[in-house]
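Design a sequence for this backbone.
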């Protein structure tokens, strides 16, 4: 029994073809939207790529860009096909192309759905990428003279100022690394030398943060150094001075930023998928209705259209029987060709015996 069986008259088939022609051209526009969203996401990721590790965050924009280009090509072809399918004679030119086209459209539609799901499932991978990337960026913050790392200080400072954040998970992350370049340390100062010697790895650690961690809402001049020493600053209370530094970590700030973008893009792509699924369903009805009217031989008659010719259970049963019979061979006793004389055998004439004379 066919799934989704619908009866179409000649006028309804022509109307369906015209509507699908229009919907396919709208789908070309949605393909451009997919391409634009993927390009926008790629640019946004590239802005802060220096503080992100290569951990599977770049395949989502590439997926959207590829899917958008495929949508433009497939739906442009679909518009031409649907326009010709309004006429039975013109449909004959596309009859053999319809099924491959529908299969390709089905896989393309599945890719659109996969792109939407990726936008919602990438959060954990993005969080790990930001954690590793920010950790390395802070570690190389001081290497302003090293090729390949000389711009990291500027990038991290711009990140902390723009997103109003500090450190990876918080401002205390700066206490665990040496973020001041060694060329700015006064090695003649005994306090500096003692601090370097007190660390196992020979790093100059301090309870201070870069200037970019300072909050613009602070009611007093920013306090960057000796943050754990209450007596080092006048009327300074570490617990009450919440507005002195940005309290939020940059990983969380960037994660919220990208999550908001991903959710918006994911919702848009999901709506595009529903629209493409509607177009695919209409094209399938048009194909089956036109093929059935060709079998009837009269283009003015009504014809049936369906999504699946048989139910899923029948299709599964049929495919299972085909697979089960693959490689199945007749037994020797069951071979119907055994002991059946052939025409060539019946025409065989016994050979005459040739007498050879014996001489004594």
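Sequence:
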């Amino acid at each position: 029994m066919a799934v989704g069986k619908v009866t179409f008259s000649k006028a309804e088939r022509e109307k369906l073809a015209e509507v699908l022609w229009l919907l396919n051209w709208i789908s070309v526009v949605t393909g451009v939207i997919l391409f634009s969203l993927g390009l926008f996401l790629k640019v946004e990721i590239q802005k802060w790529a220096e503080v992100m590790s290569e951990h599977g965050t770049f395949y989502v924009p590439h997926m959207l860009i590829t899917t958008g280009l495929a949508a433009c090509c497939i739906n442009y072809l679909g518009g031409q096909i649907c326009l010709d399918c309004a006429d039975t004679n013109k449909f004959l030119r596309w009859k053999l192309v319809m099924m491959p086209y529908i299969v390709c459209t089905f896989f393309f539609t599945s890719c659109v759905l996969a792109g939407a799901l990726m936008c919602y499932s990438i959060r954990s991978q993005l969080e790990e990428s930001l954690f590793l990337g920010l950790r390395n960026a802070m570690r190389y913050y001081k290497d302003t003279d090293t090729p390949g790392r000389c711009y990291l200080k500027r990038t991290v400072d711009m990140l902390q100022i723009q997103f109003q954040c500090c450190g990876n998970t918080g401002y205390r992350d700066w206490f665990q690394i040496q973020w001041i370049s060694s060329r700015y340390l006064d090695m003649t100062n005994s306090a500096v030398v003692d601090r370097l010697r007190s660390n196992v790895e020979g790093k100059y650690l301090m309870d201070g943060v870069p200037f970019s961690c300072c909050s613009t809402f602070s009611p007093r001049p920013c306090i960057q150094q000796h943050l754990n020493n209450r007596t080092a600053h006048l009327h300074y209370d570490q617990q009450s001075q919440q507005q002195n530094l940005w309290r939020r970590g940059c990983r969380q700030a960037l994660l919220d930023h990208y999550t908001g973008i991903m959710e918006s893009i994911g919702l848009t792509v999901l709506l595009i998928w529903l629209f493409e699924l509607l177009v695919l369903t209409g094209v399938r009805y048009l194909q089956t209705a036109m093929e059935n009217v060709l079998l009837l031989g009269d283009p003015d008659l009504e014809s049936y259209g369906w999504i699946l010719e048989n139910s899923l259970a029948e299709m599964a049963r049929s495919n299972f029987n085909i697979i089960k019979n693959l490689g199945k061979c007749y037994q020797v006793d069951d071979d119907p060709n055994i002991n059946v004389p052939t025409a060539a055998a019946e025409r065989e004439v016994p050979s005459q015996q040739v007498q050879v004379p014996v001489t004594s």
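The mean pLDDT is 82.
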